[in-house]
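Justification of computing resources. Each target in the renewal requires a structure prediction run like the one illustrated here; the chain below, 205 residues long, is used simply to show the kind of job we budget for.
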Amino acid sequence: MAITGGAKVSDKIGVINALIKQCDTVIIGGAMSYTFLRALSGHVGTSPCELDKLDVAADILVNALESNVRLVLPEDVVVTEEFSADAKPHVCEARQMPDNMGGMDMGPRTIEKFKSFLKDAGTVVWNGPLGVFEFNQFANGTREIARAVAESGAVSIIGGGDSAAAIEQLGFPTVITHISTGGRRFFGADRGQRAARHRLPDGCR
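Resulting structure tokens:
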């Protein structure tokens, strides 16, 4: 299975399509998930959202469906009125964010949902943080998924500088099988969105 996060869909188009070809479950979190939620007619408030990539997100959703791949999005999120470390957090439905608030982290239901997919995973590939992990108050989602990956017993591959930094900051680097700062190049997707110079291990399930 694969977990992908980070800020922008435009940065991960090739990565996601490559993962869909090689995994049976792809989890999407972090700020990029808001574009997917908006593409599904969700209300994402002031969350970062690439309006010019809604069609791309919709195409990826269709690609996953036609490929019989589970593409999993957040069900609930932690939102705030301000983007700051000490902003007051609120939990709401992922597709019903208030107009004056933006997403900062995954909600508790989403964390448990994402963790449930890790229980039977043989290989976990992770690229991109799942929330504003730089602010401790909003690092819970990334921390809990990192802990679940570490405890799953799966072969775990972390790619990308932000992902590596999150794993290091949250204290899990020694229990991850492989950490690379290569990001898209590591996962075999270049700027032209062509996949797979580097194939993921067999059994990415």
